[in-house]
Model the fold of this input.
Amino acid sequence: MKGPDGEFLDCANNVAGVGHSHSRVVKAGQDELARIQTNGRFLHPTRSRYIQKLLATLPEELDTLYLVNSGSEANDLALRMASQYARMKGNANPTHTICLDAAYHGHTQSIVDISPYKWRQCTDGLNYHKEHVHVVSVPDTYRGAHRGVDGGEKYAQEVCDIVDMTGGVGSFIHEAIMGCGGQIVMPEGYLPKAYAKVRENGGICIADEVQTGFGRAGESFWQFEKYGVVPDIVTMGKPMGNGYPIGGVAVRREVAEAFANSGIEYFNTYGGNSVACAIGEAVLDAISSDGLQTNANNVGSYLKSKLKNFMAKNSEVVGDVRGYGLFLGVEFIAKESTEEEIIPNADLCKFVVDYLKNNRIITSRDGPDGNVLKLKPPLTFTEKDCDTLMAGIEAALREAKGF
Ligand SMILES: Cc1ncc(COP(=O)(O)O)c(C=O)c1O
Done:
């Protein structure tokens, strides 16, 4: 990645999924900008072609796609659709949503409401916790309340209890892997149980793939495929346009029809404009022609095994390594931690991120306690890049004193 004063190794920007300034994507955008079509009421051939290609990456149940301009817009539209569908199914609380604590789904008002990561930052006393929003625990099987192999099912029980208590909610939304929540993978058994319960009352299950989609999971194109569920709605964004603003909402036909039956025509001036579609198509083509999903799988496995070795050598302060493909997290803990009480070590994590940045390696940290190193590089990342990153992390730990 080129910075204002030279090169950096980018280990953090999953928007540049197919690599910074990919020539195929740049050319597609430049060519189409010369004849951009927006505000169209008729189908543009590039749009139809792109939508067909994108739908081919999804399970056949998800056969309808809406194009928007960002991840926030995608999630906002998903909520609108879910509440309309749930209303038609006679759901008791169609506008109610179950979300995960520490989740981030975007910046609009409706979406900040379901993003505890954001509204918990509010310090002016404003009560941001809205009545229609039900927050369940982060399903963290490393450091949370339920740690065993049955942790997933136990966390899912919280979702079931809310459905029982309220008589049903319109939607349940979750990130495929929680990013801001600290690279939290959905534990085994969690989603199948939660989805089944939400659907009993005509509720809709939404998987937010804004961070994780488009080949990053490695073994699968979408992260939700690892969990043995098919969501009713999948929302997408970030790497979809490799930097150009575009988002998408894939839904089951039945949900789209319920939405259309509200009588309110869906319109979006820029959503799905011809430049966005040309760029989106070039991104899909680059993922397949450059073998980037396979690369995410191979290089992701390589990096994860290096990180696990690093954890074994430094188990006093490195508690967990998790994730899939090129979406990984490293949890830093305090030396005083015990098996029962694992103490987060945000200071050490911050030191590592700053040390790496000063050595031209860009990473980030997150999680409710700020102690999780987030790794989500462009999918062009190589084994050599992993070695450079690992050498940097190891040097940072050698330099770290008093943590
Ligand atoms: C999981 C997730 N969903 C949605 C969004 C919102 O996307 P955007 O910033 O494109 O509106 C983000 C942004 O970081 C995100 O991480």
